[in-house]
Amino acid sequence: MSIVQDVIARFQAQRPLVRAAIAVVGALIAYTFLDDYPWAIARAWSAEADHVQRVLHEGARNEEELSGKVRDAIAVYGRLDLPGSEAEGANALSIAVKDAAKKNKVLSYTFQTRTGGKLPKSASDAAGISSRVERLIGEVNFVATPQDTFGFIQSLESSPAVDAIGSVRMDWDDKAKKLSVRLMAEAWVTAGRTKGS
User: Fold this and answer.
1) Which of 31, 37, 58, 136 maximizes the CB count within 10 A of its CB?
2) Contact present, 113 and 136 (Cβ < 8 Å)
3) Residue 67 has pLDDT above 50, yes or no
4) How far, in Å, CA of 101 to CA of 108, rounded?
5) β-pairing verdict for 109-118 and 164-173
6) What was the pLDDT predicted at 148?
7) By mean pLDDT, which of 55-59, 67-71, 107-111, 114-118 is the weakest?
8) What is the band of 127 on the pLDDT scale with cuts at 50, 70, 90?
9) Domains of the chain: which residue ranges?
10) What are the angstrom distances between the C-alpha of 33 and each of 8, 30, 40, 78, 197?
11) What's the rounded Cα separation, in Å, for the pair 197 and 194?
């Protein structure tokens, strides 16, 4: 007699009440296993699907509320990432300058930010932004070799935090064989608004 047949024979030899109790315990163990593993995964997938569905419905509702000018801009220029606040922009510019300096052996530099001109209110309205969009200018001064200088500028231009390099002034120091550089990195920010609000 095999082990399985022996277990079945012992189970059938038990009184009906004991067999019912064993069946209930087996059912509880099976239910607990299913609830902890396959059903838990199914619930997680269902919750994720519900979230995606809510996002899609929200996007469809927002699309219905867009003005014709915004729809045209999206069709021409693609997805619009709204600028962050002035503080967020200054912080991102500062990090971009620090990273460019570290990457290109610029050991000493100064960095200051100030606001520049604002876009007309009609531009903010067309983009669906409640506050004015303005230019944030980060002034960077440093001394470096020509190779490190051009690497610094290239790193800064490729940073997503920098929208433009407004101006670059370089003066050659014959004694040190280095460039003294003053450049203006620019980013667009919103006045009096934090990103996501």
Assistant:
1) 136
2) yes
3) yes
4) 8
5) unpaired
6) 94
7) 67-71
8) low
9) 3-65, 86-190
10) 23, 5, 10, 48, 44
11) 6
Structure-token pair, residue 10: 């012992």
Going by C-alpha positions, the residue among 113, 150, 120 that lies closest to residue 134 is 120
> Where would I find the beta strands (DSSP E) of the chain?
109-118, 133-144, 164-173, 178-190
Q: What are the structure tokens assigned to 158, written together?
A: 């490729």
Q: Fold for 86-190, please state it.
A: Alpha-Beta Plaits (3.30.70)
HEC readout, 168-179: EEEEEECCCCEE
Alpha carbon distance 112, 2 (integer Å): 84
- The token pair that represents 110 in the structure block: 């100064």
- For 173, the token pair is 């120091």
Q: What is the DSSP string of 146-191?
A: HHHHHHHHHHHHT-TT--EEEEEEEEEETTTTEEEEEEEEEEEEET
Query: What pTM was computed for the model?
Result: 0.56
Separation CA 109–CA 71 (nearest Å): 43
